């Protein structure tokens, strides 16, 4: 189960990186249209914004898996392996609770947007459930990855901030 969750997190990380790459490409295209062709770029700003938000949501599980978040490691460095493991499990449990709550609220919001046919205020009227969908998917993956991290910590695997001898 842990290996499957970690593969999902890796896939989400690849998708997040791809969304960032797509957003960069669209920004370049938008600049070219506006300043070289002196044209209008109506849809690009929304797509870039939603792509970057989705990349943030989807990439969070990968960042947790890689322990790429910012942390203060002073206490962890000098703690014993058991204390470090317990602290990591507590932190992962807090992440799980937050992610589970945000998954539920994101799901509710996405469902409301879908049922209510919510659209953007732009001329293209993008359906809002599409960008909102990144919330329940991203936070759902983050919750699953937090569970995988707790399982790894309980097995004494994946501990961070180990002391160098």
Topology, element by element:
Blueprint: H1 2-35, H2 44-65, H3 74-78, H4 81-115, H5 129-132, H6 134-154
Average pLDDT rating: 88
Structure classification: mainly alpha
Tell me the total number of β-strands.
0
End-to-end gap: 33 Å
**Unreliable residue runs:** none
Helix content: over 70%
SSE order: HHHHHH
The tally of helices reads 6
- State the major sheet: none
Shape: elongated
Number of structural domains: 1
Could you provide a short overview of the structure?
With 165 residues, the chain is mainly α. The chain has 6 helices and no strands. It is elongated, with a radius of gyration of 20 Å.
List keywords for this structure.
mainly alpha; 165 residues
Description:
With 165 residues, this protein is an all-alpha fold. The protein has one domain (2-154). The protein is 73% helix and 0% strand. It contains six helices and no strands. It has helices spanning 2-35, 44-65, 74-78, 81-115, 129-132, 134-154. The mean pLDDT is 88.
